[in-house]
Amino acid sequence: MVWLVLLGSALGALVVAAGAGLAAVVVAQRRAARLLGTEIPPVDDQAILLIETRRPTFRMTVEQHFPALPWEVWSALEDGAFTWIPMIEGVTYRDQRRGPGTVRTLDGIVFAAAEQVTRRDPHTRLSVAGIKTSIPLLIESYTMDFDLTETSDGTTVLRWTIAGRPAIFAFLRLSWTALFLRPFVRVVLGRWANYYR
Question: Looking at the whole model, is its pTM more than 0.85?
Answer without folding.
Answer: no
